[in-house]
Amino acid sequence: MSRPDILARLAAAHAHRAREDLLRRVRTIERVDGCRIVIDGKALLNFASNDYLGLAQHPALRDALTKAAAHWGVGATAAHLLGGHRQEHAALEEKLARWTGRERALLFSTGYMANLGVLTALLREDDLCVQDKLNHASLIDGARASGAQFKRYRHADAASAQQQLQSLPAAGALLATDGVFSMDGDVAPLAELAALCKTQHATLMIDDAHGIGVLGADGAGCGAALPQEDAPVLMATLGKALGVAGAFVAGSARLIDGLVQFARSYVYTTALPPALATAANAAIDIARDDDERRARLQQRIAQFRDGAAACGIALLPSPSAIQPVLIGTSDAALSASRYLETAGFYVPAIRAPTVPAGSARLRVTLSAAHTEGDVARLLDALALALPRARGAA
Ligand SMILES: *Cc1c(COP(=O)(O)O)cnc(C)c1O
Predict the structure, then answer these.
(1) Annotation says 14 is catalytic
(2) Is 358 exposed, middle or buried, given 0-12, 13-18 or 19+ CB atoms closer than 10 A?
């Protein structure tokens, strides 16, 4: 009997990626001061971070974290159901529910685990899961792991979603969508999708990882702008605009009660360190109440979009902090990214399979921590980088 050597197969896949010049590389950041970072001894302006509000190094969060660690220690020491759940977690869950206008909320250790847990708890083999083509990998993996029929619809296209739902009219159905799409920055047509779910008797799930803290009048995101009855499953993360780590699902008491029993990535994992819950609690106060900080981010977004239009740089229709510059081939995107790095900017190229082949891009992300001068300098550098990269490719 001869079996394939699975380690050799992995190495061959790696070699193939290397030949295509598609290898991902881990870069070690040596210093961070807001959006100023140091890599390989070189100072760079960071336009790749998800720290949209500049909270990751905020004194109030550092203070909350260190005080809580002094009080509780570091690890939660157990899963939530086995003695890992502290007052800090409970207080954060209550605050998240209130902020998002939901009855209850439940913490998960990461967004990836939240999506995996929700989809596998809700869906069974005879069910249907319908998702936007550009949804985050964790939603796709969750649907696959659930064993339900999995159908994807054209990006942000409610009519295409309707066709997919109607293909199995008698199956239990969940429609899942990113609120803000992580590689494009645009917002899903949430009101239309909610109306569709109502007529199709499907359940709507929104992943608002990139909307929370950024969009909505009190920063509660684009998912929370819909009432609980229209968007019954709302998920978002605490590691992006909120500057901490972890994630939550918010919804009805009966949803949360069910997840506590059946979401395996909640049940069988160590609770988030309680001091991180305290830090996230402090982050919400700022994200919710500091209108000026959110407005500053919106000013940078507007400045970047206006500036790009003025120098002929095409952008996608994104109102969020994610402002990708489409390049095309992987080579051209890499070349542009390398040029920007020599000019002092960290803007990684996003290539297939993270985005569809032929749509490689520079994923520029903006933050309230950027100054007007930072954004102006990036625009100048892009205006030089893009013609070179496209010419070379
Ligand atoms: C980042 C992200 C996740 C995963 O969240 P983590 O807490 O980083 O695991 C899930 N969904 C979307 C849309 C994301 O952008």
Answers:
(1) no
(2) exposed
For each of the domains in the chain, give its residue range(s) and CATH number, in order of start.
21-53+291-392 (3.90.1150.10), 59-289 (3.40.640.10)
b/e per residue 302-322 (b: at least 16 CB within 10 A): ebbbebbeeeebeeeebbbbb
Distance CA 347, CA 93 (A): 34
Q: Please list the ranges in the chain whose pLDDT falls under 50.
A: none
Annotate 345-356 with DSSP letters as a single string: EE--EE-TTTS-
Q: Which atom of ligand 1 is nearest to the CA of 112?
A: 9
**Per the residue annotation, which of 49, 138, 182, 359 is the catalytic one?**
182
Ligand 1 proximity of 209 Cβ (cutoff 6 Å): yes
In the structure encoding, which two tokens stand for residue 83, read together? 């003695």
- Among 306, 328, 317, 315, CA closest to 375: 306
Cα–ligand 1 centroid distance for 245 (angstroms): 10
Nearest alpha-carbon partner for 345 in 32, 50, 52, 47: 47
Is the distance from the beta carbon of residue 132 to the nearest atom of ligand 1 less than 6 Å?
no
Quick check: pTM over 0.90? yes
Specify whether the CB–CB gap between 238 and 283 falls below 8 A.
Answer: yes
What is the predicted pLDDT for the residue at 387? 85
H or E element at residue 265: helix 264-267
Q: Omega into 353 within 30° of 0, i.e. cis?
A: yes
Give the distance (Å) from ligand 1 centre to CA of residue 275: 21
Starting at the edge strand found earlier in the chain, the sheet holding 29-33 runs 29-33, 36-39, 42-46, 345-346
Query: Quick check: 300 and 375 in contact, CB under 8 A?
Result: yes
110 lines ligand 1 (CB under 6 A): yes
Residue identifier of the C-alpha nearest atom 6 of ligand 1 = 111
pLDDT on residue 389: 79
Active site (annotated) includes residue 182: yes
DSSP secondary structure string, 214-228?
Answer: TSSTTS-TTTTTS-T
Partners of 131 in the β-ladder: 152, 176
* pLDDT at position 392: 58
136 in contact with ligand 1, CB cutoff 6 A: yes
The DSSP code for 270 is: B
What pLDDT score was predicted for residue 390? 74
